[in-house]
Amino acid sequence: MSNQHTLMLFNLLPVGTNISTWWNFGSMLLTCLTLQITTGFFLAIHYTADTNLAFSSTIHITRDIPYGWIMQNTHAIGASLFFICIYIHIARGLYYGSYLNKNVWLSGTILLMTLMATAFFGYVLPWGQMSFWAATVITNLLTSVPYLGTTLTTWLWGGFSINNPTLTRFFALHFILPFMIISMSSIHIMLLHTEGSSNPLGTNSDIDKIPFHPYHSHKDIMMLTIMITLLLTIMSFSPNIFNDPENFSKANPLVTPQHIKPEWYFLFAYGILRSIPNKLGGTLALILSVTILLSMPFTHTSYLRSSTFRPLMQIMFWTLTTTFILITWTATKPVEPPFIMIGQITSTLYFLFFITNPFLGWLENQITNPC
User: Fold this and answer.
1) Annotated binding residue at 174?
2) Residues 95 and 213 both lie in one domain
3) What is the set of active-site residues?
4) Domain residues for 132?
């Protein structure tokens, strides 16, 4: 009876026969989330949310707690692997037209914004030099909001500067938001199984589906094995590869780092922010750099779903990918020529992809079906 129930469960998850390895990143993200929550809980029971003790408590976890260095490094490196998988997952959705599963795409984009907020709050918690100043720069953007900016900033800080109340707020939010992420991930998965997965050809998979197990579960196991191996390799041989050297010093409000920048997975948004000289304009562009993903299901005009058969869309997609990498690289450089101009050009190209999407679809329709 047990085997029958198991077989029925897997048959409830039919998927297309032709989905590729790019579809395995969803299960990898679920594994990353489980890993982050598990290690995060361990770190939370040893962490002290106090400006005088936060930095030393982080060192205490790494040096004095048995296996604390494993939990600390797994959590820090796991965050970077999490975002690598997220960006690949989104890129696959853009390339193969997965955004036409409207409810799945919209819930995933909202989930992305929640994850980015959670990661930002977590980055501040070690109370290192770069953490403090990155938080100062980003939270100061709220002051650009007309009329309410100063009030919102004071409320978020818990005072008139970033201090103990701010750290307590960020720790509380970083601890609470993962529970929201679990709920939102559950909704995202339920919507996925309701609407079904897309496939590389962009065709309807209903006519040719197979059980998830064993045909695709084995692919998941292989990709998860590769990811865990990569995590353990980085943790063992180069655990600080994603860390900024400035963050190994305790936060000092009186000493400003030469070049303030957030973690690498926020650099594309930060690069767009600093490419606009107007503070309010830069803030709006930063927010729009992520929320513009919500527009994709509504701006698709092509008769074809997947970019597999859309050569013009392929050119635009790889231009977007190159632009994303260039913005990230530019954001690590000082705000001076020629990096200012490069940032402005790449930021324009980034938004141009989303703006031209409906016109590109219409043009392709005219080429393939001029009548």
Assistant:
1) yes
2) yes
3) 193, 197, 219-220, 263
4) 3-258
